[in-house]
């Protein structure tokens, strides 16, 4: 079991600041379903598209009163520019429950490593602006805090919502309280 924990995606316990400046960890979200996306606020197109899609998934699932609520999270891969204030401004354009998370460079890198996220800042232009190349996946984390599934850009909101419904239906709690 210990060997499986070492290779499993999402096994770490991140400690980051939310978009209101409160320290949050993965433990804060145990007991509920979580959708997680890594990106950055200066992203011109892909991140907003994926966060819109994730927001739509949450809205679709919210329509079914028999399902538990899903908590959407957005973790920056660009802590140099994405401080608490930048995250606060950015997340309000998406689902009202979306929580933006940032931290020090090392804290953000550690969270990314836990989910095997690739992120690399490109060269700066004459204005000091740059793009961050990064993994483009939405991660599903179950109430035990375990990575369960991922969704790439080819999946639409309805496909993702149906997949999550199936996971919820088949969920068995692994760890007793």
Question: Any overview of this molecule?
Answer:
- With 177 residues, the protein is an alpha+beta fold.
- Helix content is 31%, strand content 23%.
- The chain is built from five helices and nine strands.
- Strands 2-1-5-4-3-8-9 form a seven-stranded mixed beta sheet. The chain has a two-stranded antiparallel sheet with strand order 6-7.
- Strand 8 and strand 9 (147-151) form a beta hairpin.
- The protein is globular, with a radius of gyration of 16 Å.
Round the Cα radius of gyration to an integer and report it: 16 Å
Structural class: alpha+beta
Q: In whole angstroms, how far apart are the ends?
A: 19 Å
Assembly type of the shown chains? single chain
Note poorly predicted spans: 1-7
Strands side by side in the biggest sheet: 2-1-5-4-3-8-9
Overall mean confidence score, pLDDT: 92
Question: Helix-strand pattern, N to C?
Answer: HEEEHEHEHEEEEH
**Helical segment count:** 5
Q: What is the number of beta strands?
A: 9
Helical fraction equals 25-40%
Outline: globular
Main pleated sheet: 7 strands, mixed
Beta percentage is 15-25%
């Amino acid at each position: 079991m210990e060997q499986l924990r070492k290779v499993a995606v999402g096994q770490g316990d991140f400690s980051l600041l939310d978009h209101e400046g409160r320290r949050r960890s993965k433990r804060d979200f145990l007991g509920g379903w979580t959708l997680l996306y890594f990106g950055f606020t200066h992203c011109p197109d892909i991140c907003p598209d994926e966060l819109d899609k994730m927001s739509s998934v949450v809205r679709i699932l919210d329509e079914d009163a028999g399902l538990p609520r899903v908590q959407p999270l957005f973790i920056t891969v660009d802590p140099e520019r994405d401080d608490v204030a930048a995250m606060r401004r950015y997340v309000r354009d998406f689902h009202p429950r979306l929580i933006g998370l940032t931290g020090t460079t090392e804290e953000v890198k550690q969270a990314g490593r836990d989910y095997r996220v690739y992120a690399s800042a490109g060269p700066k232009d004459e204005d000091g602006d740059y793009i961050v190349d990064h993994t483009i996946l939405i991660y599903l984390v179950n109430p035990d805090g375990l990575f369960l599934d991922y969704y790439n850009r080819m999946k639409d909101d309805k496909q993702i919502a149906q997949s999550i419904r199936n996971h919820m239906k088949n969920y068995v709690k692994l760890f007793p309280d």
